């Protein structure tokens, strides 16, 4: 049965960020993820993980000026030094939390350069980051994001992301396959999982089209969870969704799935 990680950026938002760790543990999660930890000290994050018996599944490298709608810079020519500095900013958090997966956002397509320069910059930055993380046994992730939620994002299709993996050629570079984004852009989720599984380093979920709990909408998640088991997926499934109401009240889907997959006594 897959192991699930609560996304603390979207879940438990009724609580201050550092209090969300305990709430996730009380609800039965054994791992957490979130977008960015940088407003808090690495030691504070690490203490919340330890106190609540939680694994840090994933977080993102600094994305530039998020408040000004920047969504990463990895594909931006001329910002290579800034990307390298962002990676170094993340290192104390990686080391303090023991996190084994970090996501480098590609960025919105810059109007000031051409596609060739953007691709070359992206590949160069990913090679640098993957090499920096490899001695720590940390995977670097890239994620295709749907163009409805994030128009103009550099990476939007699964094959596009796996082509980047092949070009970069780093064993610790993987794809963060968010099934919500993939369904919106491409669909055919089972076949895409089977096709690309070897290059997938992390899975995320949410209902489509509304990005709520994965128990409604157009995606049959229990089928996909069983497929992940059959494929031998041993990572975490990140619950990156917006609860319809309270987070804990919306976890019936998780309890029902776990109960349905327990071996009979």
Automatic annotation (TrEMBL):
Presence of keyword Transport:
no
In its keyword annotation, does this UniProt entry include Isomerase? yes
Under which EC number(s) is this enzyme classified?
A: 5.3.1.22
Q: Which UniProt keywords apply?
A: Isomerase
InterPro entries registered for this protein in UniProt: HPT_OtnI_isomerases (IPR053398), HyI-like (IPR026040), Sugar_Epim/Isomerase (IPR050417), Xyl_isomerase-like_sf (IPR036237), Xyl_isomerase-like_TIM-brl (IPR013022)
Domain of life, source organism: Bacteria
Q: Which residues form the Xylose isomerase-like TIM barrel domain?
A: 21-254
Matching Gene3D superfamilies, A to Z?
Answer: Divalent-metal-dependent TIM barrel enzymes (3.20.20.150)
Its Gene Ontology molecular function terms?
hydroxypyruvate isomerase activity
Matching PANTHER family, A to Z? HYDROXYPYRUVATE ISOMERASE-RELATED, ISOMERASE
Q: Which family does it belong to?
A: Belongs to the hyi family.
Q: What is this protein called?
A: Hydroxypyruvate isomerase
The organism is Hydrogenophaga palleronii
């Amino acid at each position: 049965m897959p192991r699930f990680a609560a996304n603390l950026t979207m879940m438990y938002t009724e609580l201050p960020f550092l209090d969300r760790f305990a709430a996730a543990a009380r609800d039965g999660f054994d791992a957490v993820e979130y977008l960015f930890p940088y407003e808090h000290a690495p030691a504070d994050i690490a203490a919340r993980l330890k106190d609540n018996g939680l694994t840090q599944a994933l977080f993102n490298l600094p994305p530039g000026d998020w408040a000004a709608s920047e969504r990463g810079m990895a594909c931006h020519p001329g910002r290579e030094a800034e990307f390298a500095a962002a990676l170094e900013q993340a290192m104390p958090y990686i080391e303090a939390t023991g996190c084994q997966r970090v996501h480098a956002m590609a960025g919105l397509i810059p109007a000031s350069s051409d596609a060739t320069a953007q691709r070359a910059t992206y590949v160069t930055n990913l090679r640098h980051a993957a090499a920096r993380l490899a001695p720590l046994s940390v995977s670097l992730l890239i994620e295709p994001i749907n163009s409805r939620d994030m128009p103009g994002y550099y990476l939007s299709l699964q094959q596009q992301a796996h082509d980047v993996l092949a070009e970069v050629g780093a064993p610790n570079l993987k794809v963060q396959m968010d099934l919500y984004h993939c369904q919106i852009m491409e669909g055919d989720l089972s076949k895409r999982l089977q096709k690309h599984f070897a290059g997938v380093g992390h899975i995320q979920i949410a209902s489509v089209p509304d990005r709520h709990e994965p128990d409604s909408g157009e995606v049959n998640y229990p089928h996909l969870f069983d497929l992940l088991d059959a494929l031998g997926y041993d990572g975490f499934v990140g619950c990156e969704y917006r609860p319809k109401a309270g987070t804990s009240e919306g976890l019936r889907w998780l309890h029902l799935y776990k109960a349905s997959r327990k071996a009979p006594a």
